[in-house]
Design a protein that fits this description.
heterodimer; A: alpha+beta; Aldehyde Oxidoreductase, domain 4; Aldehyde Oxidoreductase, domain 3; five-stranded mixed beta sheet; 30 strands; B: alpha+beta; Uridine Diphospho-n-acetylenolpyruvylglucosamine Reductase, domain 2; Uridine Diphospho-n-acetylenolpyruvylglucosamine Reductase, domain 3; Enolase-like, domain 1; 3 domains; five-stranded antiparallel beta sheet; 14 strands
C-alpha cells in the first residue's frame, strides 16, 4: 500500500512548543488557593507504627494541616491501592515496609514551610526483621505483608486471596512437553545463574500531581501515563462514580513506567478533599528513589542440548524482587515470565517465575517490563553454551531461532516476528564474518550480539475519537500520553492518512478523562498497535460518514474527499461536525493451568544489539566503541522518531548495564540523588551508534506498524557481557558491570 | 530553614559579614557544591555571603614574572577557554574539558573549587603539582598559601572564617611539563575516583625535578614525596619502583567511587601513564 502521511519522518508536532518553553507540563499549573504538600517518610525498613507526633509540625507558622493515614480513613475507609494487588496504603497505617514509605503529609502555603514542618514530625516504630534479597525472601521468617491482598477483579489472582506467611505475591508456572526426559537424554546440560540490580526510571520531570476539590467531584492534574486507570482507581477508593473524578494530563518529561497506575493521585485527591483546598505535591528527584523502581532479579537457567547444537529443553526459575508493594510486579512475573526461554525453538520447557515482597522501595514497570532482566540471563547463557560447544554464537542462535510458523513454548504460533531478520541484520552490520582485531597489550577488544523478544500485555482496550470540522481540519481525542515518544505525531499521521489531509492539520487533545475516551494506559509499547488501531478505526468511521454525506447530497463518489464541499452541500454553509469513534481490543486466550495458550499476545516485539568494547585490563575500564541496534517494528509510522526510540532505549539500558545501581544500607538507599546515582552522560555514549529498522509488516497493526519503545533495551546487557568475555576472557553474571567489578574479576580480590 | 543572602560590594564588607563563629555562615561564589549540600540537607546555612558583586576578583592575566594571576571568581569555563591558560598552563585547559559538565563549568568558580576542600576534585591536585598558590585576604593581614598547604583534611582548609581566596597564582611553567590523569568510576562526568597530577622538569630528557600529587582517592591531595625521590635519583628506570612506593605511601579511601584496594591499583596505572605521557612527549 502506498501511503503519503504514514511513513513520513516529520518532526514531532509539539517540538516547537517544548523547545520554546511553552510545553504544557503539569509543573506549570497554579491553582487559586493552592497549598503545597511535603511527605514525611519512614526511616525504618520494616516496623509497626507506635505513634506519630505531629504537634511541632502543626505549630509551625504557615502550616495548614498535617495528615496521617488515620485521617485518610475518614474519607477512604479502605485506602489500599494497586493495579494487581490492593496492598499499598495511601499513607502508612499500621506498619511501614520500606525506608522512604510515605507516613504523613504536611500542607502549607509555601513549599519550603511544608518541607521544614515535615522535619519536625516524629514517628516511633517497633522495628521488625527485614528482608531485602529476593532469594532470601523466598524462605525468610521476615514477612512483609501479613496477608496477600490481590485485587478481586482478576479471576487469575483469586486463589491468592488471604494467603498468609509468605512473601511470594504470585507464582507463575509454564510446563510444555517433558523437560525432565529431555534433560535425562541430553548430550550436554548447561546451568547458570544471573542477577540484575535495582535501578530507577529517572524521568527528568519528577512525579507531580495536583488535586482540586469540587462539589461532589475532584479534578486531578497529573504527570501520569495512565489517566483512565487513575480515574477509575481514585473513584473506586472514594466509592464515587467515575464521572466525578476528572484526570488531566499534559506533556510528560519522560515516564518509562514510573508514572503508571496511580502514584500520587489518590494521595492528593484525599488531601484536597480533607482540607477543601487545591493541593500540589511535587516530588524531588531524590524522592523518586522511594517511589517506584525496576525489579532486581535472580534467574537460574538450565538447558539441554543435543549433539547438533540444538536446544531440546530449558528450565527457568526467575525470582523478581518486587519491593514492599506489588505495583505491577505480579504481571511482570507472569506476562514477561512466559518468554523466559528466549526467542528459540525449544520442544520442552519448565518456567517458574516468582514475584517476591521485600523491604525495598517498590518495583514496577520499567521500559521492557522485565524483559531486559530475562534477556540478560538467557542470552548470556546462550553465549556460554556456544562457547563451550565451540560454535560461533551467531551460528548457534541460527540453529535454534524461533521462526514464523513455529510454536513458541506457550503454544502460540509465531507470526510477524522477524527474529531471524533482526539477528541477520546485526550480524551483517557488525561485519560478523570478517576477522576481528582483539587488540594487544593491556587494551583488549571484543564484541557480542544478543537478541530478545517480548509479548505485549493483553488483552487491553483503546478508544479514540476523531472530530472533523466543516473546514476539513480534524481533532483527535485520545488518552494515550505523549511522554516524549512521539505518539501524538504518529497518531496524527494515521488520522491524516485515512482522511487524506496533512498531519499538520490534525490537532491532538491531551488526555482529559472528561473529554478523551478510555485507554488502558501508555505502557509496554502497546499504544502504536492498540491505540493506533483505534485511531485508524475512528478516522475510518468519520470517513465513512463523510462519504455517506457526499452521496446523500449528490456529490460524485471520489476517493479523494473534499471535506469542506461535503459540509457546505449538506448544511448550506460552513457548519456541522462529523465524529468518528474507534475501539480496539485484540483477541487473546488466557493461559491454561500449564501456562499454555494458542494466542498469548497480539504482536511480538523483537530487538537486538551488537557491541564492540575495549577493556583496559589494568583498570577494568570498559569502553563501548560501537553499538548497533536493530528491531522489528513492523512498518514504521515515522521512521525518524522510531530510530530515536531505538537509540534512546539502548542508551538507557546501557546505564543499567555498566553503572546504575540503587545501593542499600540497612534498607536505606545511600545514593538517592543524581550526584551519586549516575545515568549515562553524553561522554558515556558510544561514539558510533547505528539503528536499523528491519523490513517487516505487522498484519494486524495499523498500516503494518507495531510498538517500538522497549525493543532496543533487550540485547544491550548480554551483548556487552559477551564482548567483555571476548575481549579478556572473563564472564560477568551480575549487573552492573562496572570497572571495579571487572577489575576484581580479572585480578582477584587480593592483588 | 530560613537564611539570609547578603551581597557585599567590597571585600571589607564581606569579611565583616563572614567574621563569626557560626559555622552556618558561608561565602558563596558559584554555588555548585553548596547547593548540592543544601538540597541534600547536609548543610543548612544561616547566612550566605554572595561574592559576585565584589570588584577585582575576576579575570586572568600574565604577570611580569611569567606567572598567571587568576581572579577567584573566574568561572571554570572562562579558565577552560582562556588563551593565556592554554599557552602557559595547557594541562589546566585539558583537565577542564573533562571536569564535570559544561553546566557546572559555566557556574563554578576557581576560588570556591579550592576553598571547598572536597577531596573529589580535579583542580587541587593539579594546581598543587603546578606549585600554584592562593592569594588570601582577610580582616587581618593578607597571606599566600601554597595550594598544597591549603587543604588540610577532608573538607578542611587552612582558611580562617574571615579570610577569602582572592586569586590563584600559577608560577611560570617554563621548563616544566605536566600531565593530569583521572579515573571516573560511575560516569564520564562523575567526580574522580582518582586523580594524578605530575609536573616534571625534564629539559634534557632527564628528570631534574618533579612534583607528583594524588587526589580524590585520598582524604586530601597528597604529595608523593618518596616516589619523587626515586624518580629524581633513578629517572625513568625507577618508574616501577616509584609507583610501588606511591601505592605503599598513601592511605586510600573506601567510598561510593570504589574500594581502597582498587584505587591503589588505579594509582599505580595512572601514575605510570602520566609520567610516561610526559617523557614520551620529549622523545
Amino acid at each position: 500500500m502506498t501511503t503519503t502521511e504514514v511513513g513520513r519522518s516529520l518532526p514531532r508536532l509539539e517540538a516547537r512548543q517544548k523547545v520554546t518553553g511553552h510545553g504544557n507540563y503539569t509543573h506549570n499549573i497554579k491553582l487559586p488557593g493552592m497549598v503545597h504538600a511535603k511527605v514525611f517518610r519512614s526511616t525504618v525498613p520494616h516496623g509497626r507504627i507506635l505513634s506519630i507526633d505531629t504537634s511541632d509540625a502543626i505549630a509551625l507558622p504557615g502550616v495548614t494541616a498535617v495528615i496521617t493515614g488515620q485521617d485518610i480513613l475518614k474519607i477512604i475507609p479502605e485506602p489500599y491501592y494497586g493495579p494487581a494487588f490492593h496492598d499499598q496504603p495511601i499513607l502508612a497505617l499500621d506498619k511501614v515496609r520500606y525506608v522512604g514509605e510515605p507516613v504523613a503529609v504536611v500542607l502549607a502555603e509555601d513549599p519550603r514551610v511544608a518541607a521544614e514542618a515535615a522535619e519536625l514530625i516524629f514517628a516511633d516504630y517497633e522495628e521488625l526483621p527485614a528482608v531485602y534479597d529476593e532469594t532470601e525472601a523466598m524462605t525468610s521468617k521476615a514477612i512483609v505483608h501479613d496477608e496477600l491482598k490481590p485485587a478481586g477483579t482478576f479471576p487469575d489472582l483469586k486463589h491468592l486471596i488471604g494467603r498468609k506467611d509468605t512473601n511470594i505475591a504470585l507464582d507463575f508456572h509454564l510446563k510444555r512437553g517433558d523437560a525432565d526426559a529431555a534433560f535425562a537424554s541430553a548430550e550436554h546440560v548447561y546451568e547458570h545463574s544471573f542477577q540484575t540490580q535495582q535501578t530507577m526510571h529517572t524521568p527528568f520531570e519528577p512525579l507531580i500531581s495536583l488535586a482540586e476539590p469540587g462539589d461532589g467531584r475532584v479534578t486531578i492534574y497529573s504527570a501520569s501515563q495512565s489517566p483512565s486507570f487513575a480515574r477509575s482507581e481514585v473513584a473506586r477508593l472514594l466509592g464515587w462514580p467515575e464521572n466525578r473524578v476528572q484526570v488531566k494530563v499534559g506533556h510528560l518529561g519522560g515516564g518509562f513506567g514510573a508514572k503508571l497506575y496511580i502514584k500520587l493521585e489518590a494521595l492528593v485527591a484525599a488531601l484536597a478533599l480533607l482540607v477543601r483546598r487545591p493541593v500540589r505535591l511535587s516530588l524531588s528527584m531524590e524522592e523518586q528513589f522511594y517511589t517506584i523502581t525496576k525489579h532486581a532479579s535472580t534467574f537460574h537457567i538450565k538447558s539441554a542440548v543435543d549433539k547438533d547444537g540444538r536446544i531440546t529443553a530449558r528450565k527457568c526459575e526467575v525470582i523478581w524482587n518486587g519491593g514492599a508493594y506489588a505495583d505491577i510486579g505480579p504481571r511482570v512475573t507472569q506476562k514477561s515470565g512466559f518468554t523466559a526461554t528466549g526467542p528459540y525453538d525449544i520442544e520442552s520447557a519448565d518456567i517458574d517465575s516468582y514475584a517476591l515482597y521485600t523491604n525495598r522501595p517498590p518495583a514496577g514497570a520499567l521500559r521492557g517490563f522485565g524483559i531486559p532482566q530475562l534477556v540478560w540471563a538467557y542470552e548470556s547463557h546462550t553465549d556460554l553454551i556456544a562457547r563451550d560447544l565451540g560454535i560461533d554464537p551467531v551460528e548457534f542462535r541460527r540453529r535454534n531461532i524461533l521462526r514464523d510458523g513455529r510454536p513458541h513454548v506457550t503454544g502460540t504460533i509465531m507470526k510477524d516476528a522477524a527474529i531471524d531478520a533482526v539477528l541477520e541484520t546485526l550480524a551483517k552490520r557488525m561485519d560478523w564474518d570478517a576477522p576481528f582485531d582483539h587488540g594487544s597489550g593491556t587494551l583488549k577488544r571484543g564484541r557480542g550480539i544478543a537478541i530478545g523478544f517480548k509479548a505485549c500485555v493483553s488483552p487491553t482496550t483503546s478508544v479514540a475519537s476523531v472530530s472533523v470540522s466543516a473546514d476539513g481540519s480534524a481533532t483527535l481525542y485520545l488518552s494515550t500520553v505523549d511522554m516524549g515518544q512521539g505518539s501524538d505525531t504518529a497518531m496524527s499521521q494515521i488520522v491524516a492518512e485515512v482522511l487524506a489531509i496533512r498531519t499538520e492539520d490534525v490537532r491532538v487533545i491531551n488526555p482529559d478523562t472528561d473529554i478523551t475516551p478510555y485507554d488502558m494506559a501508555t505502557l509496554g509499547s502497546r499504544s502504536t498497535f492498540h491505540m493506533g488501531n483505534a485511531v485508524r478505526k475512528a478516522a475510518e468511521h468519520a470517513r465513512e460518514q463523510l462519504l455517506e454525506m457526499a452521496e446523500k447530497v449528490g456529490l460524485p463518489k471520489k476517493n479523494t474527499l473534499n471535506v469542506p464541499e461535503i459540509f457546505r452541500h449538506a448544511y448550506g454553509m460552513q457548519a456541522g461536525t462529523v465524529i468518528g469513534v474507534g475501539t480496539y481490543i485484540p483477541t487473546y486466550a488466557s493461559p491454561d493451568k500449564d501456562g499454555l495458550s494458542d494466542n498469548v499476545t497480539p504482536f511480538w516485539m523483537i530487538g537486538g544489539t551488537g557491541v564492540e568494547v575495549e577493556v583496559d585490563t589494568e583498570t577494568g575500564q570498559i569502553k563501548l566503541l560501537k553499538m548497533v541496534n536493530a528491531a522489528d517494528m513492523g512498518n514504521p509510522l515515522n521512521p525518524r522518531i522510531v530510530e530515536t526510540q531505538l537509540s534512546g532505549a539502548a542508551i538507557m539500558q546501557l546505564g543499567f548495564t555498566v553503572s546504575e545501581e540503587m545501593i542499600l544500607d540497612g534498607g536505606q538507599v545511600t545514593n538517592a540523588s543524581l550526584a551519586d546515582y549516575k545515568i549515562p552522560g553524553i561522554r558515556d555514549i558510544p561514539p558510533h551508534i547505528e539503528n536499523h529498522i528491519v523490513e517487516a509488516y505487522t498484519h494486524d497493526g495499523p498500516f503494518g506498524a507495531k510498538g517500538v519503545g522497549e525493543s532496543a533495551t533487550f540485547g544491550v546487557s548480554p551483548a556487552v557481557a559477551e564482548a567483555i568475555h571476548d575481549a579478556c576472557g572473563v564472564r560477568l553474571t551480575k549487573l552492573p558491570m562496572t570497572a571495579e567489578v571487572l577489575y576484581k574479576a580479572l585480578h582477584g580480590e587480593q592483588e | 530553614m530560613t537564611y539570609e543572602i547578603l551581597k557585599p560590594e567590597t571585600l571589607q564588607d564581606a569579611f565583616g559579614l563572614l567574621d563569626t563563629d557560626d559555622p552556618m555562615v558561608r561565602p558563596f561564589s558559584g554555588g555548585t557544591a553548596l547547593m548540592l549540600m543544601m538540597k541534600s540537607g547536609i548543610f543548612s546555612p544561616s547566612r550566605l555571603v554572595v561574592l559576585r558583586d565584589i570588584p577585582g576578583l575576576n579575570g586572568i592575566r600574565l604577570e611580569e614574572d611569567g606567572s598567571l594571576w587568576i581572579g577567584a571568581l573566574t568561572t571554570l569555563a572562562e579558565l577552560e577557554k582562556s588563551d593565556l591558560v592554554a599557552q602557559h598552563a595547557p594541562v589546566v585547559t585539558h583537565a577542564l574539558r573533562h571536569l564535570s559538565n559544561r553546566r557546572v563549568r559555566n557556574v563554578a568558580r576557581i576560588g570556591g573549587a579550592l576553598a571547598h576542600g572536597d577531596p573529589h576534585m580535579d583542580l587541587p591536585p593539579l594546581l598543587s603539582a603546578l606549585n600554584a598558590e592562593v592569594i588570601v585576604e582577610g580582616s587581618n593581614q593578607g597571606r599566600r598559601i601554597s595550594v598544597q598547604d591549603l587543604v588540610t583534611g577532608y573538607y578542611e582548609t587552612s582558611l580562617e572564617s574571615n579570610e577569602l581566596i582572592v586569586a590563584v597564582r600559577i608560577p611560570s611553567q617554563q621548563s616544566w611539563q605536566s600531565a593530569y590523569r583521572k579515573f571516573t568510576a560511575r560516569s564520564a562526568d562523575d567526580w574522580p575516583a582518582l586523580g594524578v597530577a605530575v609536573s616534571l622538569n625534564a629539559s634534557r630528557n632527564e628528570i631534574q625535578d618533579l612534583r607528583l600529587v594524588v587526589g580524590a582517592a585520598t582524604e586530601r591531595p597528597t604529595r608523593l614525596e618518596q616516589s619523587e625521590g626515586i624518580l629524581r635519583q633513578e629517572g625513568r628506570s625507577g618508574l616501577e619502583r616509584a609507583t610501588e612506593a606511591a601505592m605503599a605511601s598513601v592511605e586510600f579511601m573506601d567510598d561510593a567511587h570504589g574500594s581502597s584496594q582498587w584505587k591503589k591499583a588505579l594509582l599505580r596505572v595512572e601514575l605510570r601513564r602520566a609520567v610516561q605521557e610526559i617523557l614520551d612527549r620529549n622523545t
